[in-house]
Amino acid sequence: MENTVKPGYGAVADAPVEHDNNAVSEGKIWQVITASSVGTVIEWYDFYIFGSLTPIISTLFFPKENPVAALLSTLALFATGFVVRPFGAIVFGRLGDMVGRKYTFLLTLLLMGGSTFAIGLVPTYASIGLAAPLILLILRLVQGLALGGEYGGATTYVAEHSPDSRRGYYTSFIQTTATIGLFVSIAVIVGTRFGVGEADFKVWGWRIPFLISFFLVIASYYIRRKLHESPLFAKAKAEGTTSKSPLRDSFMKPENRRLVILALFGATMGQGVVWYTGQFYAYFFLQTVLKVDLVQASIILCVALLLATPFFIYFGSLSDRIGRKKIIMMGLLCGALFTIPIFYGMKAFAGPITEVTPATVDAAGAAVPAVMKALTPNMPALIALVFCLVLFVTMAYGPIAAYLVELFPTSVRYTSLSLPYHIGNGIFGGLVPLIATAMVAWAATQPSGFLQEHSIYFGLVYPVVIALISLIIGTIYMKDIRNVKIMD
């Protein structure tokens, strides 16, 4: 029996539909997925190379006298890109719901690529002083605004081309792009480091991954500009049913506002912290806390990502058959229960830390801290542990694009799904490295012996608590929408 439930009002679809809403050929769908995914991978690549290079950037764009303060300042700069993502969602979501999906994410692609390329040209603190971090801040804000508009456009565009009964499967390919973008950023960074040597990489080679972005963006723009508008939006525009005020319709209408709030606190908030803890903070933790070498930490994360990425597709496809909610909630539950034990395991398998370069004083009289390094990291064990973290990410993240698309009507879909997604991922998730690092630094200074002894894990309390809150809200209030017709 065909399911004709209208999206946007929490209705439950108990079975896949027999007659799909979209009559788009499979070849056309794959063309859409490829063009959307390539651009989105590049945008995530642009966004994450800054975070992946945080340890180096902190030494070049801030005073060296206090390395902890410099690291926190750089993480704060990284975090600003996440904080402004909801504003990008509002600006570009409105544009996408009024003008169109295609042209909006073409614009976000160019903004992201241009700001990333510019970061590779910014002089260091030694050259221009405080102007260096100020320019970085402005460029990070532009990156965050652009990314705030990208995800909603790509997800909506793919979903509005997909048949109802396979929406979870097709949109799950967009869900792989953030992980692939992180993987590509790490691969380029490691390849550049090997190519120019470690010493030159820390001086000027780190700029190369940023500058490469220019060529990637031009190629992606060429691919995307050949696409047509999504059939559902084109139909809505032709019939005059697009929203004249997407912001008002998304957030002032009580039924839609309730769904935006539920999507945030019952799904994307928890999914965001699971994602950034399992992938980005794990990578950061290996390098800065466990002192695993950059190349070894990169190998650990990249192998884990390669092994786990197919599960985005698996869980997206599975959600077409058993529902989105069950899988998302299981990902949140696993993240809440097992994250802290896994990080304890990472510490055990990273091996003892030794001093490879003693503390000194440079020519200017500033203290240069000792360089520490993990002696014998157990690579297979660390890969297995990080794989588990990423597996939780695939469960929480794989089906969520289809869930959000089905939650909101076409006229305000871009705006309505973008805002809760980017608050959940940008604010709650994106701030994980900064908040966790600050919590670790605070715990290390406390008189409590227990807190000091376990201080390196104290930052994990934040993502675990957020995941638990989202799990409780989602379990109680979220309904399992799947395979509904998404046309108004």
TrEMBL record:
Domain of life: Bacteria
Cell compartments where the protein resides: Cell membrane
Protein name from the UniProt record: Major facilitator superfamily MFS_1
TM region(s), chain numbering: 68-91, 103-122, 128-148, 169-192, 204-223, 259-282, 294-315, 327-346, 381-405, 426-444, 456-478
GO CC annotations, alphabetized: plasma membrane
Major facilitator superfamily (MFS) profile domain sequence ranges: 32-482
Source organism (scientific name): Hymenobacter roseosalivarius DSM 11622
Alphabetical list of CDD domains matching this protein: MFS_ShiA_like
Alphabetical keyword list: Cell membrane, Membrane, Transmembrane, Transmembrane helix, Transport
InterPro entries tied to this protein: MFS_dom, MFS_sugar_transport-like, MFS_trans_sf, Sugar_transporter_CS
Membrane-topology descriptor: Multi-pass membrane protein
PANTHER family according to UniProt: MAJOR FACILITATOR SUPERFAMILY TRANSPORTER (PTHR43045:SF7), SHIKIMATE TRANSPORTER (PTHR43045)
GO terms, molecular function: transmembrane transporter activity
